[in-house]
Amino acid sequence: MNITKEHVLEALKNVDDPDLKKDLVTLGMIKELEVDGKNVRFTVVLTTPACPMKEMIHKACVNAVLHYIDEEANVAVKMTSDVTSRKGSGPMLPNVKNIIGVASGKGGVGKSTVASNLALALVKLGASVGLVDADIYGPSQTIMFDVMDAKPISKEIDGVHKMIPIESFGVKLLSIGFFTEYKVFGNLNKSPFYSAVGKMDAPFGQMGTVNPFTNSTMWHAFGGLGYGAQIGYNKGGLHAKIMLAQGGAQFRALHVPVGNATAVPSKLNNLVADLNYKLVISDKVNLKAGASYKKGGAYCQGFPVFHFTPCEENNPEYTVYGTLDVNNRLIVMASFAKTFDEWEGTFNPTPPLNIFEASKVSSLSLGAKYDLNKVGKIKHTLSGEFSNFIAGPNGAPWERQNQYVLGYQALMNKSAKLFVEIFRTEGFAPLNFISGSADFDPFPPGTTHSDRDANSMGIVLGAQISF
Q1: pLDDT grade, residue 187 (50/70/90)?
Q2: Given 70, 104, 151, 365, which residue has the most CB atoms within 10 angstroms?
Q3: Exposure of 223 by Cβ count < 10 A (0-12 exposed, 13-18 middle, 19+ buried)?
Q4: CB 339 within 8 A of CB 283
Q5: What pTM was computed for the model?
Q6: Is the pLDDT score of 139 beyond 80?
Q7: What would be the CATH architecture of the domain defined by 5-81?
Q8: Topology given in CATH for the domain delimited by 183-465
Q9: Distance set, CA 102 to CA 83, 114, 134, 344 (Å)
């Protein structure tokens, strides 16, 4: 039987694209068809280079020719892809065939998670993948790909200096995170003054914990991270810090309105100041006490409360704190923080929740840890902590969230820590829609998912190992 192109195309009409539910010929996916006696060659152009059905389609094409035309035919099928691209003259990125964008109108929804898993999945399917992490305010791909300490180098290519990506898990990566760290200037051995610039923790209070793993609700409620410039003075037990920070809702804990109803931090309009003093009581005992002020924080939004909604007015905050250190063996920490003004978003105008007035926000943290031994290859430590988050008046569903943590840790060779924690929480007061939402967006009128009487308990087992 003489094989013709028409025969081949008719046979391939029996092969469907599993996703598009139409045959390859009708879809125009058969290209470069050549017939030379019993030798048949053609290309199947798929819609994605990572098509999971590529091998199945390849076998189906070969079998279609053998079954419907000639079982002695020699069939060569080339599998390739052609993804729909933008219109216009010239490539957007030379040598880059396909571009996938992952974006969102807000933070914390999983852009980095989706992008990294998508990149890894494409690599596993055989694609050559590069990932550009252009998140200016919260780049995290350097963490997800375990390359926090890596630094791209510059190389001249065709007369142009370009950055060479860092490769990890088969993905070539460039991230803003490689270049957005904070820098500290100063030498305390020469001068008590120092400065820092970049992305850093705001100098507001005492945000650490005695727990081996779980942080306190104080940190969750008032801890701040953002871009800014800081100057400090540290001498003779006195430590003073002041930071000018970017406002805007995307850095929730440093929220000061930046104008034009935008959430993007775009002005250096927040101020954070901290002053503490360490008093040496004896050779083995010292006490540090301090206080901090923040021009604006998270608790300024009106009802309904939703992440990154711009505020009309800032709500200042203050904190006082102290740490007692006995022989570097017993550590006792205490902190209290509160807003200056009521959080307007904690008032829901819809009955029956409108009986609860807007409230100031506060947090209390009290904890201690004790080293059972000071010498030995393994240092054993016990700890306990109570912390809370108060966001409403007595009886309000969003009144409180209390947290109790008991912990034990074993530190081996100062590099490996094994720990266990038992925790209990009382109350559930998430910041998003803390006092309810607009009607059915997502909750029915006069309802909230906060619950002051919710209770939970759990156990955390873990390890932290340094190499």
Answers
A1: confident
A2: 365
A3: middle
A4: no
A5: 0.65
A6: no
A7: 2-Layer Sandwich (3.30)
A8: Porin (2.40.160)
A9: 17, 8, 10, 34
